[in-house]
Amino acid sequence: MRRRARLLAAICVVVSVSCTAFAQPEVIRCPAPEVPITALPEAVLSEYRAEIAAEFEAYFADLSDHIACLDTERSRALSEAHVATEAYSTFLNIPPAQKDLP
């Protein structure tokens, strides 16, 4: 009976851990902005100078947002790693189960 209770407790722990694994935070994506195209004939670059300059200004603003997103993601990942390290440390300090004697 004792063995059955321990088995049931172990199953509950496994199910709980499995559910926690599926409840991971949503993936944060930080797409990089596209660099404006300047590999065009000089006449085209000259004619559309204002538009291309505006594209570069938008690119640099988007790049700033992209870098901020990467910083946020890095911070989140480090925090998650810290929590995992603490959980692993706690796990390592749990004494191994002793087998039932016949």
Descriptive account of the structure:
The protein has helices at 2-22, 42-47, 49-92. The longest helix is centred in the C-terminal third of the chain and has 44 residues, at 49-92. 70% of the residues lie in helices and 0% in strands. By secondary structure, the chain is an all-alpha fold.
Helix tally equals 3
Q: What characteristic shape results from the CA principal axes?
A: rod-shaped
Q: Oligomeric form of this entry?
A: single chain
Broad structural category? mainly alpha
The overall average pLDDT, rounded, is 83
Counting DSSP E segments of at least 2 residues, the number of strands comes to 0
Which stretches are low in confidence, meaning pLDDT under 50 for 5 or more residues running?
none
The description of the largest β-sheet is:
none
**Helix-strand sequence:** HHH
**C-alpha termini separation:** 14 Å
Main attributes of the structure:
single chain, 102 residues, mainly alpha, 70% helix, signal
Concise structural overview:
The chain is mainly α and 102 residues long.
How would you summarize the topology of this molecule?
Blueprint lengths: L1 H21 L19 H6 L1 H44 L10
